[in-house]
Specification:
The complex is a heterodimer of chains A (116) and B (114).
Chain A: E1 4-7, E2 10-13, E3 19-25, E4 32-38, E5 44-51, E6 57-58, E7 67-73, E8 76-81, E9 90-96, E10 106-107, E11 111-115
Parallel strand pairs in A: 2-11
Antiparallel strand pairs in A: 1-3, 3-8, 4-5, 4-9, 5-6, 7-8, 9-10, 9-11
Chain B: E1 4-7, E2 10-14, E3 19-25, E4 32-38, E5 45-51, E6 56-59, E7 62-67, E8 72-77, E9 86-92, E10 103-104, E11 108-113
Parallel strand pairs in B: 2-11
Antiparallel strand pairs in B: 1-3, 3-8, 4-5, 4-9, 6-7, 7-8, 9-10, 9-11
The chains are: A mainly beta (116), B mainly beta (114).
């Protein structure tokens, strides 16, 4: 299957700092990537849809100025958590389809963010 | 938008028994229903999916059924094994309407007791 790679897998930062998470499609081009957030023992909540060359579409309740998304190429989307606070601590995971109508979403490894 | 409900939230079965997880969805236009398995600290992995043009699909010990009229679909695992222990998520999406995201249920934590 298609491969989506995410980096870093774990990051610990101080309150007030910004953290960038990268999501790459390794063997296919992804005009669209999806960013999800997962709290411990909870479901995958869609945060935003990242579109190559245009602005991301954010879900209701997700602050676009807090979670900056950039999709600069067909294989890379980045999520930057700005001015992080302890409540931003979570598991962030990106995903993409190898084709728009193929169905299966391939997920990255996820990034566990801990804000002290 | 789509809303997916999943039950039960936890499920314990004896090894060799069957496990059934049920989901309902709200958007009648949804036409793609995958099931993902997530082990602790790992990424979700697709185990089976079904499209709205079929009512049932089977892959070895795993099967999924879909009732479009009632807007519900179920995952059936037979002859469960300890390695089936994980969290299972159902999801729904519209395909053929652009590249749309999956909306996930809240998950079912399955424990298979040896």
């Amino acid at each position: 299957g298609a491969v989506v790679s995410q980096h870093p897998s774990r990051v610990i930062c101080k309150s007030g700092t910004s953290v960038k998470i990268e999501c790459r499609s390794l063997d296919f081009q992804a005009t669209t990537m999806f960013w999800y957030r997962q709290f411990p023992k909870k479901s995958l909540m869609l945060m935003a849809t990242s579109n190559e060359g245009s602005k991301a579409t954010y879900e209701q309740g997700v602050e676009k100025d807090k979670f900056l998304i950039n999709h600069a190429s067909l294989t890379l989307s980045t999520l930057t958590v700005t001015s992080a606070h302890p409540e931003d601590s979570s598991f962030y995971i990106c995903s993409a389809r190898a084709g728009a109508n193929t169905g299966e979403l391939f997920f990255g490894e996820g990034s566990r963010l801990t804000v002290l | 938008g789509e809303n997916v409900e999943q039950h039960p939230s936890t499920l314990s079965v004896q090894e060799g028994d069957s496990a059934v997880i049920k989901c309902t969805y709200s958007d009648s236009a949804s036409n793609y229903f995958p099931w993902y398995k997530q082990e602790l600290g790992k990424r979700p992995q697709l185990i089976i999916d079904i499209r709205s043009n079929v009512g049932e699909k089977k892959d070895q010990r795993i099967a999924v059924t879909l009732n479009k009229t009632a807007k519900h679909f179920s995952l059936h695992i037979t002859e469960t094994q300890p390695e089936d222990s994980a969290v299972y998520f159902c999801a729904a999406s519209r395909l053929n309407s652009g590249n749309t995201p999956l909306v996930f249920g809240k998950g079912t934590r399955l424990s298979v007791i040896a």
